[in-house]
Amino acid sequence: MGIRLIGALLVAHVAFAASTTVVLSVKTGRVVRRSGPEVAARPGSVIKPFVLAALREHGATPGAMACPGRLRIGGRQLDCTHPALNEPLDAHRALVYSCNNWFAAASRRLSAEDLRQTLLRFGLGPVEAARDDDSKRLEALGEAGLRVTPLQLAQAYRNLALAGDWIADLTAAASFGTAQLAAPFGGVVAAKTGTTAEGAWLAGWIPAEKPDYVVVTYVPAGSGGSDAAPVARMAFAGLLPKDPHGVRVQYMGKVLDLPLEEYVAGVVAGEAGTMRSAESLKAMAVTARTWASALRGRHRGFDFCSLTHCQEYRPLELSQAVTAAVRETAGELVWWQGRPASTYYSRDCGGVTEAGWAVWPELRLPYLVSQQDPWCRSRGKNEWRAEIPHVRVLSRTASGRVARVEVDGAAMTGPEFRMMVGRRIGWNVVRSDAFEVSGDVLRGTGSGHGVGLCQTGAAHMGEQGRGYREILAFYYPGTRVSRTAQGLEWQSINGERVRIRTTQPERDASMMRTADRLAGEVERRIGLHFRQRPEVEVYPSVAAFRDGAGEPGWVAGSTQGRVIRLQPGMPESVWRHELLHELVLQNAAPGLPLWFQEELVSYLAPGLRDLTPRHRDSAAGRVQQVVKARGEAVVLGWITTGLPSGLIGPTAPRR
Q: How far apart are alpha carbons 514 and 534 in whole angstroms?
């Protein structure tokens, strides 16, 4: 394991292990979760909402003020760190930007006792009486006058949440600066960060508009709110509804249930060390998300570890650039033939990527091929050197990497040799399989196995203005990037009445004659003709159907617009049902209610009820009763003429 990784993991471990987090129920005030040691520390800027409350209560809120940036109080330098602003700040924006100058100046409009009583009323204290103007200004910045525990602060923020007046202020505060790193994907939080010489704070609640839980995190010796926010984010994420696409990750001795996007953000933070451009970070986000979607379940009891065996997961190293890249590509995957691709990647390919099967013989995928990588090569060779005796190269792959070596008379593959050296000596000794041997000296280039995306090359492509889709298309040729499997390579088979679109024409061609026969049967059944040839998409797998059609796996088929979408291997009853839907849709009078169309098809094809539970409530309902009363021919005639006045039905279930 490299020095860089060891150092990063050590810092993360110290921050995570030493932090204290309290989760409080807004409704009951009870502690829902608590971790870390008992502490009491200066609150820093997390006290500012209470100072603003005191100003509002006593009618002392000042007007807009310009911020000079620099601030010195009693020999202490407390300059503002927010961006330079071109206009004066009112009270709301002063809190959003956490302007020290505004709060220090505004506190002069309060008596020391008024400020003290407000803090006590919210549950903060004991509060020392300010002795002079400097003491009062420092108290307003959370730098003097009181110390708080995480539980105390959580209870005070619960009081803010219950008051309701602070939702807009703290929701906006969580949208700027370091507090935005606390908002998990899929949740909006109201939060405020604070920093003192003792440590870093984050306090807030979720959801922002209708608070259910307060979260307070304290990280001792933190360098800023950016240290506390990612720790608090993990607590916020754990309070979200369970993500059906989420993953289980072992992190620092604990197994975490994470929303997929939260996991992706932590992986990009850990893996994208060489990437600076937004587009390369987006490419890495899509790559990591696809890898997780395709390869979950790598460990017993959890999906992924947090190290390089799976993907490096470092949630405490999140940045705003990383969260933006993940947010802007949310849900997007690299697709191949209707399934998430196996998006392997490495640190540096050395100028030539490696074929997947050269490293893993079973990985014979047409998009994991060896190719020249000018983007990586233009950044230099990334050379390394190691001294290991008794190594002899036996064979090489087409890319020039070592396929097999002999070490002290024992033969093994190049990747096996690299793993053996890594475990015994260190992971930075033999960095890749691209090396030459001269005596006891190995000289190599690159880092990692070289399969798939090269992070060095992708970083350079992004810096040169290439978009993330272009980056992914280069490293995974022939694949598609999409939020669903609709990027499949479809081929059309035309029959006399029906057109079938499929990704596997050899398999589905046999259905063409059956589809034509069924189309004729449904036309005769209701006495109408298709106005245009029905188009049927047969998906290659249940997963591809679920992602492409947007239906749950238990739904056999669906008609959307003018396209019938089916799972593979469906019986004739499913084809007949969906062809009936299409025929009714093509001939329907303007405004013909959807409930009538649904129930009419269920009446005409009742045998499908056991296959698709979505029709159980509507099947043979009101339409069946009307058929008994007025006759089938009359009811079928309503398809083209519309329903008679007075016939009103229920809203049909979602198709």
A: 14
Answer with the one of 237, 265, 282 that is the final residue of a domain. Answer: 237
Rounded CA gap, 169 and 286, in Å? 34
Return the closest-CA partner of residue 339 out of 644, 545, 549, 497. 545
Domain co-membership, 288 together with 337: yes
**Is residue 335 located within the same domain as residue 469?**
yes
Single-letter amino acid code for the residue at 352: V
What SS3 class is residue 256? strand
Q: Which domain holds residue 389?
A: 383-445
On whether residue 316 sits in a domain, the answer given is yes
CA angle (314, 41, 197) in 5-degree steps: 70
Q: Is residue 528 domain-shared with residue 595, that is, in the same domain?
A: yes
Pair 183, 290 in one domain: no
Report yes or no: 334 and 472 within 8 Å, Cβ to Cβ. yes
Instruction: Give the C-alpha separation, 192 to 225, whole Å.
Output: 9
CA–CA gap between residue 319 and residue 269 (Å, rounded)? 7
Whether residue 218 contacts residue 201, with contact meaning beta carbons closer than 8 Å, is answered with: yes
For residues 517 and 588, state if they share a domain: yes
Write the DSSP symbol of residue 348.
Answer: B
Residue 425 lies in a domain: yes
Does the pLDDT at position 652 exceed 50? no
3-state class percentages of the chain: helix first, strand second, coil last, to nearest 5 = 40, 20, 40
Average pLDDT (580-592) is 86
**597, 618: one domain:** yes
Model's pTM, two decimal places?
0.72
pLDDT at 21 over 90: yes
pLDDT over 90 (residue 467): yes
CB 158 within 8 A of CB 214: yes
In this predicted structure, the answer to whether residue 655 has a pLDDT above a threshold of 60 is no
Q: Which position has the higher pLDDT, 125 or 379?
A: 125
Tell me the pLDDT band of 618, cut-offs 50, 70 and 90. Answer: very low
User: First and final CA of the chain: distance in angstroms?
Assistant: 52
* The Cα angle at residue 296 between residues 292 and 301, in degrees rounded to 5: 135
Share of the chain above pLDDT 70, in %: 91
Return the CATH number at 551: 3.30.2010.30
Q: Are residues 271 and 301 in the same domain?
A: yes
How many structural domains does the chain have? 4
What's the rounded Cα separation, in Å, for the pair 613 and 594? 18
Rg, Å, the chain Cα set: 32
Q: Are residues 343 and 477 in the same domain?
A: yes
Each residue of 177-235: pLDDT tens digit?
678 889 998 888 999 999 998 999 999 999 998 899 999 999 997 656 678 999 999 99
DSSP assignment of 76-122 equals: EE----SPP-SS-B-HHHHHHTT-HHHHHHHGGGS-HHHHHHHHHHT
Query: Which of 182, 208, 237 is the endpoint of a domain?
Result: 237
pLDDT at 283: 97
Q: Is the pLDDT of residue 9 over 50?
A: no
Task: Output the pLDDT for position 561.
Answer: 60
Q: Is 131 exposed, middle or buried (0-12, 13-18, 19+ CB in 10 A)?
A: exposed
Confidence of residue 607 (pLDDT cuts 50, 70, 90): low
Q: Is residue 654 part of a domain?
A: no
Q: Is residue 155 situated within a structural domain?
A: yes
